[in-house]
Design goal:
Length: 120
C-alpha cells in the first residue's frame, strides 16, 4: 500500500518540478510570469520531495528492500532543494534567481526520474 503511494506520488514530484522549472525559466525572460504564485508553486514542488522521502522512509521501516542508488538519488534531490534554498536571498545571484530555480527544479526533476527508473 505505502509502496504504491510512493510510486504514484513520484509522478507528482517529477511533474511539479518540471512545471515550476519551465515556469521559472519563462519568468526570467517574461516578467509577466513572475509573482507570488510562482514561488508558492515552487514551495509545493519542493515540499513534495520531503513528503516523498518520508513515504520512502516508511517503506524502509516496513522492511522492504530498496536499491541503494534509488535512495542516493532521492537524497540528492533533498540536497539540491537545500542548496537552492540557501541561495534564495543571496544578493550575488539575485538577478539570476529565476534561472537558478528554473534549472535547479529541472535538475531535481531529472534526479527524481533517475531515482524512479533505477528501481525498475
Amino acid at each position: 500500500m505505502l509502496s504504491s503511494i510512493h510510486d504514484n506520488f513520484a509522478w507528482f514530484v517529477i511533474g511539479s518540478n518540471a512545471f515550476v522549472g519551465c515556469w521559472a525559466l519563462g519568468a526570467d525572460r517574461y516578467p509577466a510570469l513572475r509573482g507570488p504564485w510562482l514561488w508558492r508553486s515552487i514551495a509545493v514542488a519542493q515540499v513534495s520531495l520531503f513528503v516523498q522521502a518520508a513515504l520512502g522512509a516508511g517503506i524502509i521501516g516496513q522492511g522492504i528492500q530498496v536499491e541503494q542508488f534509488h535512495m542516493f538519488y532521492g537524497f540528492l534531490c533533498l540536497v539540491a532543494v537545500a542548496i537552492l534554498y540557501g541561495y534564495r536571498n543571496n544578493d550575488q545571484v539575485a538577478r539570476y534567481r529565476y534561472l537558478l530555480y528554473g534549472f535547479g527544479s529541472l535538475f531535481i526533476m531529472g534526479l527524481a526520474l533517475r531515482a524512479f527508473y533505477v528501481d525498475l
